[in-house]
Every structure is written in structure tokens, then in C-alpha cells.
């Protein structure tokens, strides 16, 4: 076995930094500067996989060109660099894992990792959390999160860990169904328990949808008998999470989404620029809402970032998803895309990479993408541009979230110009905005 073949076989371990190693380190994307060591590894594997560039789907090529247009008018370039880095990773991993030969090796790796993370979650629950609650090492917000015991493993939030466990549960069932090996049953149970322990409502709902869809596809008789079990699981989840907590979460999300729509409503043509939702949100925030830095929805984030171009961005992502309709994992891909649409997971590389890899490795069921020199060269240029923008991430100041938030709110209330330094393109939004009585553009 030559070096290239060895690297091909073991490239799955490239994913470990995304997930973190229990006790050793969390996901490297919790603190962005920890990931600069990781970038050379991506480049090495990308270099080995350059031949796969010609297979990059044209709809994804167009989709990822669209966010670059916001470079013409984005207010805070530093914030945009973060998302450009994420997009670079998604494109790179798609190419690196294109038509990966060792699929079952990858599935088993993710299943085993889900079990390891679950053991760490138990350690968190019975040792780390009680220790932190007795210490003065955490702030009030962290203390509140720990007290309600929403477990998160090596990730930064429980809903991120829930996304990972959802994939783990599905792959465990998929391998059990394929191999008829009962060793996969404990893995299924473990990942189901993990989702319950995160107390993430959307993950639980999507788990039910995923389970019913799989049952309907494979055993229609069992599908009808399964509703009793579904009702039991719903009652268990409601008891664990609490109805009042779910209502509170829905209320906050409602106001978050309303703010995002208002930002789009005021900037329908161009949006506010990639990842610049963060600096506009304080102006649009409702008193009843919480502090957020992302629209918590791929759809709304795309609209606020890119305006009507965001609709095109979403169209090409959905078109690529539809092309995978004959995939063995199409049901899971739909569920993960719904997760993107209802939460911020698309912008969390720690787990979003799972979606891109699952699309990339399963290419044997469909016609291969059309190969043209123009598409190949365009993809190469796109990767290079995103690489340069990604490198800039490590030379920009850290984001100044909560501690300076009040100052930012006050500055916005004083009508500080938060619009583009580079072009007056934002003024065009005035002619497209729906509510022309509420103009926020500085016309100097």
C-alpha cells in the first residue's frame, strides 16, 4: 500500500478535530484560533484530492460564488471572514471525500465516536457539572445552562451535540439493517438516549420524523404499530425537558426570527453582508428576545446576509440536495437540511461537515457531474479565493460579543452609520424596502 492509498484510507481521522477529543480538547471551532494548525492538514488532503475538483457539482459552485458578492458592501469584513472559512471547509471536504471508497469504515468510525462522546457526556453529568456548580469558575449564564442539565459533550451547545447524535443514531440503524449485526443495537440506544439528554426539541422532532420515514420505507406494517412507541417517547421527552421550557424556547425563537425578517425587510436587495447579522441584530432586537449572533435558520440567515441573492443561494443548495434523491441516505439528508433551516447548524462546522461528507461520498447511485474545463477552473479559483479569505480569519481580532454588546446597542440607537464604507449600494435597498416609513439609511 503506497502513501497516497494509506492517506486515502485514514483520511477519516481528519474529522477528529471537528468533534473534539473528550478531556483532551473540545471541538477546535469553539475557539477559532485553535484551528489554524488544522488548516495545513486540510490543504495536504486537498492537494492529494485535486483530481476530484472536476466533479464538484455546478449548483454548489454557483451557490458558493454568491456569498462572495457581499464583499462589495459588507460592513464588518472580520465577521464575514468567519463564514468564508466555514464555506472553504465545506467545499474542501466535499472534494476530499468525493466518492470515498471506505464508506463502512467511515460509518463505523462515526458510530464508535458517538459512543465515546456519550461516555464523556456521562462523565460530564456525574462529575464535571457538579464540580463546576460548586466552583466560581463559571458565569451566571453558564451556571443556568448547567443547572438544567442539557448535556453537550465536546461541543459548545447541546443542540450541536444533538445534531451529531442524530447522525450517529441513523448510521447505527443503517449498519444494523445492512449487516444484521446486533452489536449495533447498543449504539442505536446510546444515541437515542444522548438526544434525550440534550433536551433539544428540534432534534427530538426530527428524530421522530426520521424514524417514521425509515419505518414507512422499510416496513409499512410496523410503521402503523410504531405510533404507540412514538407517543411514549414524546411523553418521556416532555417530562425531561418540561413544557414551560419548550414554550419559552419557542417564544424566544419567534422573536429572533421576527428580528431577522425585519432586517431582511429593510435590506431586501443586498442583505447586510455575510455574517453581519450580528452587528445589526441589537437594533432590531425585541425586549422579550435573548442575545444571539446568528439568525438560527439557514433560510433567514441567507436572506439577511444576501437579500434576494440569498434565495438563489438556497435554491442551488436545495437543487443539489434533490440530485441526491436516490441516495441511501436521502431521508437523513432531508432531515439534516430541515435542521439547518430551523437552527444555526449550517454555520457550525463541527457538525455541518457531516452533511457535506454524506453527500460527497455517495456518488455511485447517480450520474457523475458533468465535467468541463470551465467548471473545473472556476472551482479551482473559487477554492483559492476562499483559502485566502480563510487565512484572513487568523489575522483578525476576536469577536467582541457580550461584554461590548450594550455599547454597540447604544451606538446604534444614536444612529451611528453601520452601513458600508466601500459602496453606497445599501441606498438601493431603500427603493426595494417594504416599509419606507422606517428608513435607517444614512444618506450622507
UniProtKB/TrEMBL annotation:
Keywords (A to Z) from UniProt: Ligase, Membrane, Transmembrane, Transmembrane helix
Cellular component GO terms held in the UniProt record: membrane
Cellular localisation: Membrane
Membrane topology classification: Multi-pass membrane protein
Domain of life: Bacteria
One Gene Ontology term of the molecular function aspect: ligase activity
Transmembrane segments: 12-31, 37-53, 60-78, 84-100, 107-129, 160-176, 188-216, 222-240, 261-284, 296-318, 330-357, 377-395
A Pfam family of this chain: Wzy_C
Ranges of residues in domain O-antigen ligase-related: 188-314
Name of the featured protein: O-antigen ligase family protein
Annotated organism of origin: Candidatus Mcinerneyibacterium aminivorans
Amino acid at each position: 500500500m503506497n502513501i497516497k492509498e494509506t492517506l486515502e484510507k485514514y483520511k477519516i481521522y481528519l474529522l477528529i478535530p471537528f468533534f473534539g477529543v473528550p478531556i483532551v480538547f473540545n471541538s477546535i471551532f469553539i475557539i477559532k484560533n485553535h484551528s489554524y494548525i488544522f488548516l495545513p492538514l486540510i490543504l495536504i488532503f486537498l492537494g492529494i484530492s485535486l483530481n476530484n475538483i472536476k466533479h464538484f457539482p455546478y449548483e454548489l459552485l454557483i451557490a458558493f460564488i454568491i456569498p462572495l458578492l457581499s464583499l462589495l458592501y459588507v460592513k464588518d469584513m472580520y465577521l464575514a471572514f468567519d463564514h468564508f472559512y466555514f464555506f472553504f471547509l465545506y467545499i474542501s471536504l466535499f472534494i476530499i471525500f468525493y466518492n470515498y471508497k471506505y464508506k463502512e469504515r467511515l460509518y463505523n468510525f462515526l458510530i464508535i465516536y458517538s459512543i465515546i462522546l456519550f461516555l464523556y457526556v456521562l462523565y460530564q453529568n456525574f462529575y464535571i457539572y457538579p464540580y463546576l456548580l460548586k466552583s466560581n469558575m463559571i458565569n451566571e449564564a453558564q451556571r443556568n445552562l448547567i443547572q438544567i442539565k442539557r448535556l453537550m459533550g465536546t461541543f459548545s451547545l447541546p443542540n450541536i451535540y444533538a445534531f451529531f447524535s442524530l447522525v450517529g443514531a441513523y448510521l447505527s440503524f443503517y449498519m444494523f439493517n445492512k449487516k444484521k449485526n446486533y452489536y449495533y443495537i447498543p449504539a442505536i440506544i446510546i444515541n437515542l438516549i444522548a438526544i434525550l439528554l440534550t433536551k433539544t426539541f428540534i432534534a427530538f422532532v426530527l428524530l421522530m420524523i426520521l424514524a417514521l420515514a425509515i419505518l414507512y420505507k422499510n416496513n409499512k406494517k410496523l410503521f402503523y404499530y410504531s405510533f404507540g412507541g412514538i407517543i411514549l417517547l414524546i411523553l418521556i421527552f416532555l417530562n425531561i425537558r418540561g413544557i414551560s421550557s419548550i414554550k419559552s424556547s419557542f417564544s424566544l425563537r419567534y422573536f429572533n426570527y421576527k428580528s431577522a425578517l425585519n432586517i431582511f425587510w429593510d435590506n431586501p436587495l443586498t442583505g447586510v453582508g455575510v455574517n453581519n447579522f450580528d452587528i445589526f441584530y441589537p437594533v432590531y432586537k425585541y425586549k422579550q428576545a435573548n442575545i444571539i449572533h446568528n439568525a438560527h435558520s439557514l433560510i433567514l440567515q441567507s436572506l439577511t446576509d444576501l437579500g434576494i441573492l440569498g434565495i438563489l443561494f438556497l435554491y442551488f443548495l436545495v437543487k443539489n440536495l434533490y440530485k441526491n434523491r436516490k441516495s441511501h441516505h436521502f431521508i437523513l439528508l432531508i432531515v439534516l437540511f430541515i435542521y439547518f433551516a430551523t437552527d444555526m447548524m449550517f454555520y457550525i462546522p463541527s457538525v455541518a461537515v457531516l452533511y457535506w461528507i454524506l453527500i460527497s461520498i455517495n456518488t455511485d447511485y447517480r450520474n457523475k457531474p458533468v465535467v468541463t474545463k470551465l467548471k473545473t477552473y472556476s472551482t479551482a479559483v473559487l477554492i483559492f479565493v476562499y483559502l485566502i479569505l480563510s487565512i484572513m480569519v487568523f489575522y483578525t481580532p476576536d469577536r467582541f460579543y457580550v461584554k461590548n454588546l450594550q455599547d454597540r446597542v447604544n451606538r446604534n440607537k444614536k444612529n451611528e452609520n453601520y452601513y458600508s464604507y466601500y459602496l453606497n449600494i445599501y441606498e438601493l435597498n431603500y427603493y426595494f424596502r417594504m416599509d419606507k416609513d422606517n428608513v435607517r439609511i444614512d444618506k450622507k
